[in-house]
Amino acid sequence: MSPSQPIFRFAPSPNGLLHAGHAYSALFTDHWARALGGKMLVRIEDIDTARSREVFVEAILEDLAWLGLDWPAPVRRQSDHFDFYRAGAKRLVDAGLVYPCFCTRAEIRAAGTGETDPDGAPLYHGGCRAIGAPERAARIAAGAPHALRLDMREAIRRAGALEIAETMPTPRDAVKRRAADPGRWGDVIVVRKDTPTSYHLSVVLDDAHQGITHVTRGMDLHAATDIHVLLQALLGLAAPLYCHHALVRDAEQAKLAKSRGSQSLADLRAAGWSAADLRAHLGI
User: Fold this and answer.
1) Which of the residues 39, 121, 166, 170 has an alpha carbon 20 to 30 A from that of 215?
2) What gap in Å lies between CA 75 and CA 81, rounded to an integer?
3) Which runs of consecutive H residues, i.e. helices, occur in 39-114?
4) CA-CA distances (angstroms) from residue 81 to 11, 76, 92, 148, 196?
5) Exposure b/e, 185-214, CB count within 10 A at least 16 = b
6) Cα separation, 248 vs 20, whole angstroms
7) What is the tens place of the pLDDT at every residue in 48-87?
8) Between vectors from CA 34 to CA 12 and to CA 267, what angle results, nearest 5°?
């Protein structure tokens, strides 16, 4: 396939079973990849090794096959590429764009400013930004757990004004550009304490590495795109075209979620649903 042809991706995390919301996103992505003469890759986002399970990886691939989807091999698994993410993080470190944060979640909540990020989490107060280099080095040498946070003010200063190229509700619509506002996220974590990357860093690096031209995903990640275009600018990476689709909701209008125990695709199959039934139910 030539570089000019669109490349999409469906990238679930194997920390639970897929539900109808995941099915909608996968079917939506596959539909538009085919409609635009491209292809859809499958990527397993399993950097959270404490919660990821091999049984869920197998279930994801089984569910996607049941939906009638196919994808090129091999499937990229993020847990196989931690050195790749370390190298990306090192570029941010060498550029002086990150700093170690030793705070626990409880400490951040206790010292909260009252402000929250777009996901509703307490906005980080920035306390560790002021720790001097000698103290940082001593604490790290002593084995103090720490994450790496992006110095958002410095990152924005260097990147300048950013725009996001997006299209709604389908990738065939005219491309529109909106101003990115990554500052509303505060000093986001780009390397977690327990793993050498974060969702934001690994997804940006993987999209560039795999040549992703179109990112289709749910509206729950719309605001996170501000962080992604910022990291792309800082790392000199190409930015895909973004399309955020509506979320599938339950009878109470809450979005489907693994954490809420939403009915899985395996449950639907056991109840007698066919893939055609689910496609019809989702309007695809």
Assistant:
1) 121
2) 12
3) 54-66, 82-94, 105-110
4) 15, 9, 18, 19, 10
5) bbbbbbbbeebbbbbbbbbbbbbbeeebbb
6) 7
7) 999 999 999 999 999 999 999 999 999 999 999 999 999 9
8) 40
Mean pLDDT, rounded, for 125-130: 92
**Main-chain dihedrals φ then ψ at residue 191, nearest 5 degrees:** -135, 120
* Per-residue pLDDT tens digits for 233-264: 999 999 999 999 999 987 676 677 766 667 89
Helix (H) or strand (E) holding 279: helix 275-282
DSSP per position, 134-163: HHHHHHHHTT---EEEE-HHHHHHHH-S-E
For every residue of 169-225, DSSP letters joined together read SSTTSPPEEEE--GGGG-S-EEE-SSSS--HHHHHHHHHHHTT--EEEEEGGGTTTH
Residues 13-24 have pLDDT tens digits of 999 999 999 999
What pTM value is reported for the model?
0.94
Long-range pairs of 82-90 with CB within 8 A, sequence gap ≥ 24 = 82/47, 82/195, 82/196, 82/197, 84/205, 84/209, 85/47, 85/196, 85/197, 85/201, 85/202, 85/205, 86/196, 86/197, 88/197, 88/201, 88/205, 88/235, 89/148, 89/190, 89/191, 89/196, 89/197, 89/201
Owner of token pair 């997006």: 166
The answer to whether the CB of 248 falls within 8 A of the CB of 284 is: no
Q: How many residues does the structure list for the chain?
A: 284
* Token couple for 142: 């002593």
Residue 168 falls in which region: left (phi positive, over 0), alpha (psi -120 to 50) or beta: beta
Closest among 107, 89, 91 to 201, alpha carbons compared: 89
